[in-house]
Known about the structure:
Bound molecules: FE-MO-S cluster
Helix content: 40-55%
Strand content: 5-15%
Distance between the termini: 45 Å
Strand order of the largest sheet: 1-12-11-10-13-14
Structural class: alpha/beta
Amino acid sequence: MKNDIPAIKAELTKIYPKKIGQRRSDQIVINQRQPDGSVPTIKANIRTLPGIITQRGCTYAGCKGVVIGPSRDILSITHGPIGCGFYSWLTRRNQTRPPTLEHENFINYCLSTDMQEENIVFGGEKKLRAAVLEAFKLFKPKAIAIFSTCPVGLIGDDVHAVAREMKEELGINVFGFSCEGYRGVSQSAGHHIANNALFKHVIGLDETPHEEKFKINLLGEYNIGGDGFVIDDLLARCGIKLVSTFSGNSDYQSMANSHTADLNLVMCHRSINYVAEMMETKFGIPWIKVNFIGAESTSKSLRKIGEYFDDADLKARIEQVIAEDMPAVEEVRKDVRSRCEGKSTMLFVGGSRAHHYQMLFKEIGMKVLAAGYEFGHRDDYEGRKVLPTIKVDADSRNIEELTVVPDPKRFKPRKSEEELARLAADLELELRDYIGMMPEMEEGELVIDDISEHETEKLLEVYKPDIFCAGIKEKYAVQKAGIPCKQLHSYDYGGPYTGYRGAINFYKEIDRMLNIKAWSYLHAPWQLPPPELKAVAAD
Ligand code: CFM
């Protein structure tokens, strides 16, 4: 069955009731190209079917945990029952490095209003106000962010009104998020809500100019396992000024100042494309898609920056950095490839990573059998060219779409339209564009959106991949099937995996996981005769 992809697809959905099976099969597609090169349509960013057991997270997780959480000096308060704050407390491996010990770093703290039944009945605004005041007295932060959890929306607490009042009273920036867990179909909605608030309440507040020639922001890089540190170092060696990162290793001031940059790099398209687009409309800063996962992709991304600024010195420095770092990468790559070539993998991660990490596997000659996002949208699969054809459903309409216009004073196109058109050709059309995962995957392979637990188990059974990439929820079920599982959310305890240094780390990690003998020693109890029986047999 391994090579009969339509049969595998049928096998995955066979067990479901007819209606559910039909609906799932719109989210499971065979990546067959059309004669014009386009990829098939996939259903994505729709409600999870009840009962299938999704790996998705909630809207609050996407807003508080993913986008705002990594910023070290925005003080985050979760308005809700204690569980929401507790479970989002230090569970994502986003790292931060304040310049000195005197600098603020609130990442280790977990602040919650700890709502009780009484607050659900009589309202929680009073408690929230008291919490903001208490937090202010304790920490004296520059900014406080208030996150709504499900009950807050259900009882109708107005977190925005509280934020406005407290902002006035305390004289610091206080802003709220209507990011109740149920607000959207997944954490993706939370990304959008977080992007909107950053744009409304933070970006553009600090006008400090920078002297440097090549100023950029890195959007959608969250410094998981130190990924961002590697990129920071690479950019610095190339002579590129990083004004701000959204939001790994970031601080409030740098975000407030980010509109002074001349280019936005978009790493995770899913979680941050909204900020990129809004900043271009309001301030005139163009954006390009980059990917610092994979040695090849890193070089390609650095060269794109060189082309954008179109400066001979910068281009030369970039080439020098690539030339300095690539020999070490090549050495490890060749060695690891000799043991991993031809082995297979599957990647099921939230968004961008299911695409980005395919690059690293290809570099060591491994085959990607199937991949999918938990909550990506059609544009993440098929490319942004499908954006005009995506129907806006009620769930998406539930999330505010900001109307952005050019800033009367601060809009300054960084490049003329002609220049941008010329660059677009040079940059292989990835200026303001993302080509998506499917065009870069092999033909005929399976692409599965919002994969269920049952489908995961079936895939393991049918394909028996050499390694499976997913997260903590799937990890132990996969390993019980005798297949090593690499966590691509938290990286287990590893990383960084970005840039050249990260590529070397990843090659070695996969080599170790694939070629270690431990798996051959594993036997389920029923696969071996128990010692008592052995003794009986010996008699
Ligand atoms: Fe972007 Fe991310 Fe991802 Fe994501 Fe996430 Fe993540 Fe992810 Mo886990 S922002 S979409 S919401 S690359 S936390 S750092 S690993 S699901 S693929």
